[in-house]
Design a protein that fits this description.
25% of the residues lie in helices and 32% in strands. It is of the alpha/beta class and 122 residues long. The chain has a single domain, classed as STAS domain (Transcription Regulator spoIIAA, 2-Layer Sandwich). The longest helix has 18 residues.
Length: 122
């Protein structure tokens, strides 16, 4: 199927938005919409920007991702990224990949921002 000249999976969104919320004690990068190969490129660029300007682990909120594939999820599997929330689609893919799932981490230095449970495998 083609939408606006782009190959697309039927029913899958073809757009994504990546933004940074700097109103919290730590910036939180949020993804809205699809997180596939093109969304991954946009997310990677934003993560690189936040790393350069903040110089620390990046917090990512994926609660509003309505479509995800393994290519899209790849940028958040880096050791310096903490996922603070995940949609059911993201949660399912994290489970399939055997990755830790986001849970609320009190006292984790994120001031109430949920974090991944457990260490990350490499």
């Amino acid at each position: 199927m083609q939408e606006r000249g782009i190959d697309a999976v039927p029913g899958a969104p073809v757009e994504s938005t990546v933004c940074v919320d700097r109103s919290r004690p730590r910036p939180v990068v949020s993804v809205i919409g699809a997180l596939d190969t093109s969304g991954a490129a946009l997310l990677s660029a934003m993560l690189d920007h936040v790393r350069r300007t903040e110089g620390r682990t990046v917090v990512v909120d994926l609660t509003r991702v309505d479509y995800v594939d393994s290519h899209g999820l790849a940028p958040v599997l880096d050791v310096d990224v903490t996922v603070c929330g995940a949609s059911p689609s993201v949660t399912r893919l994290l489970e399939l990949l055997g990755r830790p799932l986001p849970v609320t981490a009190r006292g984790a230095g994120l001031l109430g921002v949920p974090a991944l449970s457990g260490p990350r495998a490499h």
